[in-house]
Every structure is written in structure tokens, then in C-alpha cells.
Amino acid sequence: MRAIVVSENGGPEVLAPAEVADPLPGPDDLLVATEAIGVNFIDTYFRTGIYARDLPYVPGEEGTGVVVEVGSAVTEFGVGDRVAWAAAPGSYAEKVVVPSAVAVDAPAGVAPEQAASALLQGMTAHYLIESAYPARPGETVLVHAGAGGVGLLLTQMAAAKGVKVITTVSTDEKEALSREAGAWRVLRYGAELSRKVRELTGGEGVAAVYDGVGKDTFDASLESLRIRGTLVLFGAASGPVPPFDLQRLNAAGSLFVTRPTLAHYVRDREELTWRARAVFDAIAVGTLKMRVGASYPLDAAEQAHRDLEGRKTTGSIVLVP
Questions:
Q1: Is the pTM value of this prediction over 0.90?
Q2: Which CA distances in Å does 6 have to 13, 24, 43, 63, 236?
Q3: Separation CA 6–CA 75 (nearest Å)
Q4: Mind giving me the DSSP string for 37-56?
Q5: How do residues 73-83 score in pLDDT, each as one tens digit?
Q6: Which of 35, 74, 122, 189 sits between 20 and 30 A of 111, alpha carbons compared?
């Protein structure tokens, strides 16, 4: 089968198309022929070595496709079922072994490109607004990268709860997308960001900041919080945040900082299916708009990563075998 193989850590150029043997499913696994594959920032962390993974490996964690083989111990799925997943390493390939424990039904009303990129970003947005900091109606929050895949979904989910959302973006085009998603106010990144946030909140600051950018926005995020506000640091698109003095949290107003990851918010089958169904159901009925900003052939994974890291994309992006 065709797959993307990483033999050394580095830039996008290490994403090499190759012919490899079909993977073999175990008793609890599904073998799935992929229809579309999600591309996420976490894939770049593994590629560069920020997150360790044994080499060589096939990157990717997320996708959707049709089951072509079922392990002997699997009872929930059958051949021909359409499934989606967000935690199956080796997804940049024409066929993927997906543990049945992480697979969910992909509804017929959700297009493959949407289903392939809805789970990781959609369930991330869901746990951020429902669990990491469950914002309440009338509160104001700040969402960085408001036109990104998670940002657009998170803004919609927050606005639907009656939360006022301030977002940050880098271009006029992205501002338009963020406003369309329900942002109350849209700001640019920069030195004046926290001052503008405080002006918009009458000097108080926001209840929470959802920050997937990391190093470049961390200080402004802390400075934008109200007393006892919460910084939810869920990514590091600009690089990891350097060590900092915890005393800063005291001086700034008894602040909270959490560094969550999706895996800890889908710890069992019940929680996984709850979040997945909430996302898919909302997409299927149209209350959650899932924007797929770009599709690339599987062999163009290198370009997909270049565009993602260069902030040239909006919404989610996918590879199509």
C-alpha cells in the first residue's frame, strides 16, 4: 500500500511517500481502507521530535474509512462499516489498523473530509469548553488562532452556550471566518493584545483563555485573565512555553493554568462516544459548521505540513488517498 514514512526527525521534507506492506490487525483491531486522513499540529510535534516516537514510522492519528477486516475479538463493528478515529498511529496511509476501542461510527450525513478531521479538533473543542474550563453563559473568553480548525469549532460551541468570545487572528480573511463562527470581537496578535482585551472587558479581563499557540502568546494570555481566571494551554503551534515562575500566578490574581490533552478527556468508551456523538450530531444537523480549508493527495503530505506550519490554512486540512 501507499503510505508516508518518516525515517528521521526534521522539517516537512522528511515526510516521504513509499510503498509498504499492508498492516496486520490483531484480535481487537479493525483494518480500515482510508477515505480521508486528518492533518493536525500534533503530527508536526512527532515529525520534529518534540514528541518522541521510534523511527521509522508512519505519521498521523486521525481519519475515516471503511472497515475491510475485523479482528476475531471485535463485536461492535463489521466489514463495510464506515468508521472514524482520532487515536490510531500510522494513519497517513491507504490502510490503517484501528483499535476497535478508539473507533466510532461515522454518520452517513457527514462527508469523509469532515469526518476525517472532526474528531480530534471537534472533541478537543468539546473538552475545552465543556470540561477543561466549562465557560458559563455571559462570561467572556479569549480564543487564540480563532480561524484555525479548533478555533472555529471552539468559537461556535462557546457562542452556542451564550459565551462572549474574543478571538485572535493574523489576517482580514481569517477575521471574516472567525466572525462568521460567532466571535464577538476579533483582535490581531501583538504587544497591545492584553490591553485591548481589558478594554473590551471593562478592565476586568476574561474568565478563560484557550491557547493553542504557546510560546508567542503565553504572556499575553496570562495578562488578559481576570482575577482567578484560567489559562487552558492546549497546544504549542509557536513552540513550547519556557519554564516560568509560579509566583507570577499569585501576583496576577491567583490565576490557574492547566495543560490538558485529549487522551485524558476520553479515558473510557463512554466518554469517547459522548464527545464524538456530540460533535458528529451537531455537524450532521448543521448547528456546527466544520470547515475543511484544504485537501491534499496523500503523497503531498510534505506540502500540507508546510502550509499548516506557515499559517496558510484555515479550518482543518486533510489528505486523500
A1: no
A2: 9, 20, 11, 18, 21
A3: 34
A4: EEE-HHHHHHHHTSS--PSS
A5: 999 999 999 99
A6: 74
